[in-house]
Amino acid sequence: MTRAAVMGSGSWGTVFAMVLADAGGDVVVWGRDRDVADDINERHRNEAFHPGIDLPRGMSATTDAGAALDGAELVVLAVPSQVLRENLAAWGGAIPTDATVVSLMKGIELGTMMRMSEVIAEAGQVEPSRVAIVSGPNLAREIAQRQPTATTVACADEHNARRLQDACTTDYFRPYWTTDVVGTEIGGAVKNVIALANGMAVGMGLGENTQASVITRGLAEMARLGVALGADPLTFQGLAGVGDLVATCQSPLSRNRTFGENLGRGLSVEETIAVTKQTCEAYKSCEPIAELARSRGVEMPITEQVVRVVHHGDSPRGMAAAFMSRDTKAEHPG
To answer: How far apart are the C-alpha atoms of 238 and 180, rounded to whole Å?
Structure first.
């Protein structure tokens, strides 16, 4: 039985803890909210994030980070990407030195342009060979209902990738392993930005042609950046690439798409933030992603236009016009 600590009691953290417990693990969830911890322990529910969903009895919860981490073989990090470093400073020293540390986060850190695995290695003082990633078409609410899905688990160390794969395989959750950490993380981060752009198109009432174009050209941006950083191009044809991109762009359950829809319907950025109940990773990650692309000489026109809308006051309709007015070129240059 694998002893796992899931650091974060929000939507995805709770669901991945459920997956680990359903796979036979002994799982402790850490969170700051005492009411959520009590709900998990006493009623086997997390009504704050997943009302009506029964959680396994193999899950427990605590507000004591040290107690959650004690003896953990897997440490799963499920906090917003921009507060990861802060959290690691608070409790990273308690992570067991032989544990595999798993990131569920899909973002790029502001200021440093670091991927989450890099932040974990630096701020948590964890060897890169022990850092793993989970990323794929994994909308939390559908998994909470135990609907079948697949995902990618990535670690530079094949043994640790397979170890994580074994720990989270159930009859409804099917992981595939890879050693391409860079591609898996870039896919997860960039797809949120493209989903926000696609949401704006939906909010403006644009149809399937527009959305298919945004998704396809968004995939090209994702792959260009990933390859420039050393990723395997095939990763973007898989679950962590096109799979996650399609799910996030097309589903109304996607918080990034919903954020974009509200902007497309005419809400201001401030109004959209006010009505958004959960973290929209694309809102903060779009800037460091664009900065990272510029530093590598990679063109990401959709990402750049999202930055202009959410951080510089441009309108969604202006974004569409700017994209369509770019110089024409070959679909696959070179």
So the answer is: 12
CATH number at residue 268: 1.10.1040.10
Which pLDDT band holds residue 334 (cuts at 50, 70, 90)? low
Of the candidates 191, 277, 284, 329, the residue annotated as catalytic is 191
Output DSSP code: residue 56: P
**Do residues 264 and 316 lie in contact, with contact meaning Cβ atoms separated by under 8 Å?**
yes
Residue 295, both tokens: 């530093």
Any bridge partners for residue 108, and if so which?
115
The range of the structural domain enclosing residue 274 comes to 186-324
Residue (of 298, 181, 170, 292) closest to 232 by Cα position: 181
Task: Return d(Cα 161, Cα 165) in angstroms, integer.
Answer: 6
Please list the alpha-helical segments (H only) found in 156-232.
Answer: 158-167, 181-203, 208-228
The tens digit of pLDDT for each residue in 286-300 reads: 999 999 999 999 999
- Is it the case that residue 321 has pLDDT exceeding 90? no
Closest residue by Cα to residue 188 from 135, 227, 226: 135
**How many structural domains comprise the chain?**
2
* DSSP annotation of 207: -
What gap in Å lies between CA 81 and CA 147, rounded to an integer? 26
Burial (CB count within 10 angstroms: exposed 0-12, middle 13-18, buried 19+), residue 330: exposed
Domain boundary among 179, 210, 226: 179
Has 284 been annotated as catalytic? Answer: no
